[in-house]
Every structure is written in structure tokens, then in C-alpha cells.
């Protein structure tokens, strides 16, 4: 039986970090966590490309352009959508997830989903570096493992 498995070694790999500015109080710690993860796992800081977009709605388009650029081996999409009193949350969160998921399914390169979808600011802050860890780190770790796996797969 042949088994392929990605490693958490970022040597020689290049990553795009596409981060939404909306809810910056949350997305900046996510970006810091993702950057820290990649650098600690051997990715050279010069091989990190940060792309800033207005909000989560714009993440899929920027991720697609970056994927087509040939500049990176993997992408980490980072954003935060907090539920409000209107259906806006469902539309933005749903389209961000659908767009990033569709891009990821093309198999060109891995795109990890580091978009928080929470009911409150408190929940978002917990997931961006306090009680519940840093989901930016986790998304970067997934992208790193998948980029390593993609190098091995035929």
C-alpha cells in the first residue's frame, strides 16, 4: 500500500496570506498567528506574500488571482464575520466559504479557510489568540501540510 502524507516542513515553500481588513481587531491576530506558524515551520519570511482585502466577501477573488500568479505554493485566507441582526452574516460567510472552497477543490494549490464565523466579538477574540487558541495558526498549519502533500502527489 502506498501512502502520501504532508509534512510540517516549510523549507522552500511560498505562501500567500490573504487577510480581510474588516474586523481588524480579530484579523490582525489571525495574521500574526499564521505568520508565526509558517516561519516556525521553516518558511522564509521573504516567501510570505500578504494581500489585504476590504472584507471576507473579497477573499475568494483575491485568493484566485494569487493562485493564478504562480507566486505561491499555498494560500491562507483569513477573515472574520460576526453575526448581526440581519441576514448579511449568512450571505457574506456563505459566499466566502463557497468561493474559497471552490478554489480549493480545483487542486491547483491548497487554500485553507481561516475565516471565523462567530455569534459575537467575544467568540471571535477567543479564537484569534486567547482562550480557544489561534485559528490563523491552525489554518496556516493546514496549508503547510497540504502544500507539502501536493509536492509529493503525482
Per-chain topology:
Blueprint lengths: L14 E6 L3 H17 L7 E6 L5 H11 L4 E9 L5 H18 L5 E8 L2 H7 E3 L2 E2 H18 L2
Parallel strand pairs: 1-2, 1-3, 3-4
Antiparallel strand pairs: 5-6
Helix pairs in contact: 1-5, 2-3
Description of the molecule:
- The protein has 154 residues and is α/β, with parallel strands linked by helices.
- The chain has a single domain, classed as Lumazine/riboflavin synthase (Rossmann fold).
- 46% of the residues lie in helices and 22% in strands.
- The chain has 5 helices and 6 strands.
- It has helices spanning 24-40, 59-69, 88-105, 121-127, 135-152, and strands at 15-20, 48-53, 74-82, 111-118, 128-130, 133-134.
- The strands form 2 sheets. A 4-stranded parallel beta sheet has the order 2-1-3-4, sandwiched between helices. Strands 5-6 form a two-stranded antiparallel ribbon.
- Strand 3, helix 3 (88-105) and strand 4 (111-118) form a beta-alpha-beta unit.
- The longest helix is centred in the middle third of the chain and has 18 residues, at 88-105.
- It is globular and about 50 Å long.
- 44% of the residues are buried.
